[in-house]
Design goal:
Length: about 170
């Protein structure tokens, strides 16, 4: 019985805290990747520099800092047009989808993950992100309905109380 109660409380907590499977990145990792990009700019090969920028973009969109996420989105959007291979495009689209998810723009995130899945329909990481986005949209809708129902209930209760006083 205790196990069932524990699972119930865990699911309720997960529902309201928005627990997802997307990893977070600490500020020190972001700073390390930024330093790596700065060092790579000093005469490294284009491929190495590109790899460093991708790691930095990954760190930014997975950051807990909203400003970092916005920087990552801007970097990825600026570099998306110059992407040659479908593999690189898929990875950039995925990271953009993560960034938009982290910033709360779920519809844009879903559009981008759909583009990823057009390139690679069986990509597990993108499929998981798509499910996470859809779950979040559903959860936000349920919470919104709950808030609206509570407001209507309070309003109806207030009207009923005023009617009783008269």
């Amino acid at each position: 019985m205790e196990v069932k109660i524990g699972k119930f409380f865990d699911s309720v907590t997960g529902f309201f805290t928005g627990g997802d499977q997307i990893p977070w990145c600490d500020r020190d990792i972001v700073a390390g990747c930024e330093q790596e990009v700065a060092e790579a700019a000093k005469g490294s090969s284009d491929e190495f520099r590109s790899d460093c920028i991708m790691r930095f973009s990954w760190a930014l969109v997975h950051s807990r800092q909203p400003a970092d996420v916005q920087r990552g989105i801007a970097m990825l959007e600026a570099s998306l047009d110059g992407t040659g291979s479908p593999l690189q495009k898929k990875e950039k689209l995925y990271l953009l989808a993560v960034g938009y998810y982290r910033s709360g723009d779920y519809s844009r995130s879903r559009q981008l993950v759909e583009q990823c899945l057009k390139i690679s329909p069986d990509w597990r990481q993108a499929l998981i992100l798509k499910k996470t986005i859809e779950d979040r949209i559903t959860k936000d809708g349920v919470i919104g309905i709950g808030i609206a129902a509570t407001a209507v209930g309070l309003l109806a209760g207030g009207i009923a109380a005023l009617a009783r006083k008269k």
